[in-house]
Task: inverse folding
């Protein structure tokens, strides 16, 4: 029926090429055996071997991984609470302040978030003596603060699609609010929570700017080490690392999206099964 | 409110007050302090006078310095210009992608969306680094252009303003494509067909029907790209030359190289002032925009 939009398809194809050519080349050149990054000297996994002997990088990766897991877990819990409050608590007195503060990390430049959190940690150390030193703790607290805002957005959009009647039914049948939340709401939100956890994990393991501000001596995260290595020039080791990270993260993203897709299909099927709904 | 409910509300609220509002107020406070050689390196807001009274010490010297020194004004204007141009380029690259996704059917649509989102999940730092690999003097783009005979000598692509634009467009493209897609997917294509049937040429139908109807997506996407681009640090640092001074880079140097915390705080407050208007616009656009900041919502069925 409709005319074939050749121009559109061509332009979109260029757009996709723009997105993927750099990634594909980065992956391809990670298998280059030569010392010079840009000159192809045959296939080799040499840089992967060197990568796994670089103690500084490995240490930083382990540190980042630990921070990311703790951050993602705490941020998911905090984001779940914040998202739930915004969707299910209706209008409450400090709602504008609450939602405004929650949205702030999504729009404020990272350099400002990083600087302001450092000022907080310095002031806290001076006044209450905690946190005693800057490092893993301060980075984790900073990451929880900004990534829980993202989790809250994911939770909010999923919760808004859920039928409150399910929770009301549970309470009518005698479940306490706490039981209803744990046995009805949380399972229904599971896909959003998984996606939120992975998003928080990704944000944390990828953050350079905020971690640089709030970190202290001896606590260098993976992005901080990568940044110091690529600031001046190219590093074949980093090509190999990038390939590994792209592989892992793409796999993680894929899983999250599949979960979300399945959940929305299930929700659609459930709604169809329930017959036509009387929407307000 | 029951105690349980109150706790549920209090925990995130207290967290936000302590880790968001308080730090911001501290930056505001430190921006009106003097830099001193001490730990912490700024003067206290309240000082105890010799008579036992408490004196409030506020200085606007940092703000005056920002206004007087041309470096800051230049970097502010440069940041706004770079962010605006990059946003426009992002729109030009992103619109066809979003339109193609919106027009695609069934499984293809899911795959195309996935392909836009996946790079967003991979490391930002490493994606910027990938462009360093491409643009390097002896790099792949130069190699390809030389081999094709387009150029005779390698071009200086890296460490230039152009490289910064490419980096920003590349990094923020998903933020542009997702709201655009959301707007275009909602668009009733029969309107475009009606315009074509009534004698519009395809580009006229696009300019008079599709483009105006997708305006909410254009605005949302542009804000989502413009706001982080203004404060960008990593991209100008890795891809830009010494002349691509952006305000995020100035703040970073003021803090890490010069250790001038009060001045860095004043720069931060001034940066926020630039962003107040775009941020307020974005906040007004409610949840649709916020959802697209993370993941696309499943397409809603059209109501009869």
Result:
């Amino acid at each position: 029926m409709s005319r074939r939009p050749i121009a559109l398809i061509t332009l979109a194809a260029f757009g996709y090429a723009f997105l993927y050519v750099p990634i594909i080349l980065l992956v391809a050149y990670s298998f280059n055996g030569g010392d010079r990054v840009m000159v192809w000297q045959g296939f080799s996994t040499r840089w992967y071997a060197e990568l796994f002997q670089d103690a500084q990088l490995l240490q930083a990766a382990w540190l980042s991984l630990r921070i990311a897991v703790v951050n993602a877990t705490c941020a998911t819990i905090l984001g779940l609470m914040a998202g739930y409050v915004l969707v299910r608590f209706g209008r409450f007195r400090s709602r504008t302040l609450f939602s405004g503060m929650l949205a702030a990390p999504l729009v404020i430049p990272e350099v400002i978030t990083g600087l302001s959190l450092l000022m907080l940690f310095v002031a806290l150390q001076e006044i209450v003596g905690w946190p005693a030193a800057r490092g893993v703790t301060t980075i984790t607290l900073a990451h929880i603060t900004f990534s829980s805002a993202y989790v809250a957005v994911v939770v909010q959009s999923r919760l808004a699609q859920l039928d409150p009647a399910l929770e009301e039914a549970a309470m009518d049948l005698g479940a306490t609010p706490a039981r209803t939340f744990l046995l009805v709401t949380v399972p229904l939100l599971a896909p959003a929570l998984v996606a939120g956890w992975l998003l928080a994990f990704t944000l944390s393991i990828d953050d350079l700017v905020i971690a640089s501000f709030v970190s202290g001596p001896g606590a260098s995260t993976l992005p901080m080490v990568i940044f110091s290595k690529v600031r001046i020039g190219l590093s074949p080791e980093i090509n190999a690392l990038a390939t590994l990270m792209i592989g892992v993260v793409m796999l993680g993203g894929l899983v999250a999206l599949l979960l979300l897709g399945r959940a929305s299909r299930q929700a659609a099927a459930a709604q169809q099964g329930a017959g036509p709904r009387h929407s307000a | 409110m029951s105690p349980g409910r109150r706790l549920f509300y209090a925990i995130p609220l207290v967290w936000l007050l302590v880790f968001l509002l308080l730090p911001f107020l501290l930056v505001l406070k430190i921006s009106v302090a003097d830099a001193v050689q001490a730990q912490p390196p700024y003067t206290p807001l309240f000082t105890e006078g010799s008579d036992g009274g408490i004196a409030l010490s506020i200085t606007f010297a940092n703000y005056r310095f920002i206004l007087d020194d041309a470096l800051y004004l230049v970097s502010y204007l440069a940041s706004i210009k770079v962010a605006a141009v990059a946003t426009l380029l992002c729109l030009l690259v992103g619109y066809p992608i979003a339109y193609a996704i919106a027009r695609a059917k069934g499984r293809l649509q899911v795959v195309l969306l996935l392909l836009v989102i996946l790079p967003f999940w991979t490391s930002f730092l490493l994606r910027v680094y990938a462009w360093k690999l491409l643009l390097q003097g002896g790099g792949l783009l130069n190699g390809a252009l030389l081999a094709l005979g387009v150029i005779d000598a390698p071009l200086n692509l890296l460490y230039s303003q152009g490289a910064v634009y490419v980096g920003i467009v590349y990094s923020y493209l998903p933020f542009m494509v997702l709201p655009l897609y959301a707007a275009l997917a909602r668009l009733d294509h029969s309107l475009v067909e009606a315009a074509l049937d009534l004698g519009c040429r395809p580009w006229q139908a696009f300019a008079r029907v599709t483009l105006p109807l997708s305006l909410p997506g254009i605005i949302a996407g542009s804000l989502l790209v413009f706001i982080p681009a203004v404060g960008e640090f990593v991209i100008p640092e890795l891809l830009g030359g010494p002349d691509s001074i952006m305000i995020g880079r100035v703040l970073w140097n003021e803090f890490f190289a010069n250790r001038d915390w009060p001045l860095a705080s004043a720069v931060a407050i001034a940066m926020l002032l630039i962003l107040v208007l775009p941020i307020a616009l974005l906040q007004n656009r409610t949840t649709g925009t916020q959802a697209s900041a993370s993941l696309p919502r499943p397409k809603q069925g059209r109501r009869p």
